[in-house]
Amino acid sequence: MAKDSGQTTDYAGPLRRLLLIVICVALFGLFLFWRIDSPRVERLRAQVIDRLVPNMDWAMAPVTGLVNLGRDFQSYRRLAEQNQELRSELRQMQAWKEAALQLEQENARLLDLNNVRLDPRLTYITGVVMADAGSPFRQSVLLNVGSRDGIVDGWATMDGIGLVGRISGTGRNSSRVLLITDAASVIPAIIQPSGQKALVAGDNTNAPMIDFLENRDLVRPNDRVVTTGDGKVFPAGLLIGHVVEDRAGNMRVRPSADLSRLEYLRILRHHGTEAISDPGGLVAPAPAAPVEEPKPETAEGAEPTATEDGEG
């Protein structure tokens, strides 16, 4: 009894080996059954597939889901790559759009410079704006033309559409343009079609004031404001801008020239301009008439009297 109780019989190992052998034989038999090329076996295989496969959808659902998940992930990755490419192309298109707009505006300005009709007596030279030399207290720009090009203080400058300012200080290779918005700029103007005369006075804002208006009731918004030629500094008929009314009810001029984006300026050779002795002044003072000294009167036939030095 002691011997039987001390010994245990282990059947697990042989059973596992037997089960493994049976599974291998069944798989091998299934392989052979699936590989046999016989009409009867083919019909039998078809019957087995018809019975088992429709009932195995529940078992194939996880596999199908994993396959669909993998396909969706690949599709998402392709979409992400295409999205990155489209964003890159969009940035390039935006840069090209900005360049195209700048070229279009530059082309429009150049066309305006070439096609504008002015007084045939006026000739001009075109300069490039090098820098903005202005400040909150001084509205001016620098041009790349100067005294070597025959530029004279006081000549009017335009951007092809409207009046920009006048030359106020020249060097050999550069010149300074005082803008019409500067506080030192006062331009005699006439408002069309009413014919009212006024002064367009800059106050360092984007819209100069209209001062000394004869009859305000005859002036309407969007009326044209042009130079009169009074003071002999600016030629007559240059477009300054259009009338606007601010919130306080004051009449102002909205310049026709785009003063915030000046690139090319036309300097008008106005040879009838008064000589500017003070570049900071707008309207030149009238030159003083020369005073003639009175000549001593002598009697006819009388000899001139001798001077103290004895000269006759």
Strand order of the largest sheet: 1-2-5-4-3-12
Q: Give the N-terminus to C-terminus distance in angstroms.
A: 183 Å
CATH architecture of the domain at 123-269: Beta Barrel
CATH structural fold name of the domain at 123-269: Thrombin, subunit H
Level-1 CATH class name of the domain at 123-269:
Mainly Beta
Q: CATH homologous superfamily name of the domain at 123-269?
A: Rod shape-determining protein MreC, domain 1
Helical content stands at 25-40%
CA-based shape: rod-shaped
Question: Strand-and-helix sequence, N→C?
Answer: HHHHEEEEEEEEEEEE
Q: Quick one: biggest sheet?
A: 6 strands, antiparallel, barrel
Structural class, please? alpha+beta
Range of strand content: 15-25%
Poorly predicted regions: 280-286, 299-312
| Multimerization state | single chain
Contiguous helical run count: 4
User: What radius of gyration results from the CA coordinates?
Assistant: 49 Å
Please tally the β strands and state the result: 12
Written overview of the protein:
The protein has 4 helices and 12 strands, in the order H-H-H-H-E-E-E-E-E-E-E-E-E-E-E-E. With 312 residues, the chain is α+β, with helices and mostly antiparallel strands. Among the domains are: 15-52; 123-269, Beta Barrel (Thrombin, subunit H), CATH 2.40.10. A 6-stranded antiparallel β-barrel has the order 1-2-5-4-3-12. Strands 8-7-6-9-10-11 form a 6-stranded antiparallel beta sheet, with no helix packed on it. A hairpin with a 7-residue loop joins strand 7 (196-201) and strand 8. The longest helix has 59 residues, at 57-115. The chain is rod-shaped.
